[in-house]
Design goal:
Strand 25 and strand 26 form a beta hairpin. The strands form six sheets. Strands 2-14-13-9-3-6-7 form a seven-stranded mixed beta sheet, with no helix packed on it. The protein has one domain. The termini are far apart. The chain is about 5% helix and about 40% strand.
Length: about 375
Amino acid sequence: MKIKTIFLLSLTVATLSCEKSEYTAPAVLSGESIRFGIPDVSSGGGLSSRAAGGPLDEFPEGGSFGVLGYCLAQKGDNTGLDPNTGTDSWEAKAPRSTPHLFYKTEVEYNGSACYYTGMQQRWYEPRDYLYSFFAYYPYEGGYFAVTPETAEGMGAPTLTFSMPFEGGEVETPRTMEEIPDAMVAAAMDATRGDGHVNLRFYHMLVGLNFKANNYNETHGVVIHGLRLAGTFHRSVKIDIDKGQSYPEETFRGTFAFLDGSDETDDVKVLAHQSADRLGDKVLMLVSNPTANPYLGDIEIYLDYTFMGEVHTNRYIGSVADFFPQAGTIYTVELNFIGDAFVLNFVVDNNQVWEDGGDSDLDFE
């Protein structure tokens, strides 16, 4: 009996010792709140002005973005957050991470600082913990679908932007001013020592504006109407771990830069003269590099008068062979040569977000 008692006592002590060695103290929060710095907008060459429905060269005062914030991954048995993962890189802990710090939280910018309402999240006490933040703009409007669907969802998030149109016919009027300048940002493996969370936003869409060049030797041309019509790509999905993809979603419609029925829109281009940014508008579209055509099945139509003859709804060309890259504004040149228009697509050096290159939307 004595031997049995000693054995049981030894087993109990060993068990308690084992449990004690596996116990992990909870992570300790500091007294310092997590703050966001003034958001930066990636822009290769500052925009001289903002056209109607056009892109942003700086984060708008009064604008807000949504953010997801991560630090600790879940324990192996999913019983809670594991403080031992605080110093792990995002790549290492992403599969078991949840947005436990921020989940689709609205952060507003008042022109001088960013703030969010409700519970103020705090940094953890250890200064070597690594944090990752993923943001999207705009917050309002329901343009972005975000996963995980709850703050308890594990794994790298996805951000899917969709244009504010769906279905329709080619003749359906569309308003380009309804299209937001969709942007995303990431700050991975940031530390408490960085101070504010600094986010740099990248443009997701392509910008198009039009310019008319009259190379006719003697006669001017009057442009009354300018329209893009056809089928457009609707969505772009960013998986933080896997990169970009493009859902097979489209919409149809017509975007008007100049209203052919309104004489106040008329643009007269004299011989050997040019007219920039027709309609003072920039159309922003989804460019899908995995599709053909890249911008969709789109055609350009003009209403114009030359030497007293009126041409209505004249087909000028398509954008089938044009490969635009996200984060870049292009000028579509309407070159009037002889008695006809010839198209040319060029990077607008005064309005280029990314120096003609692709936006850095891959957060791997």
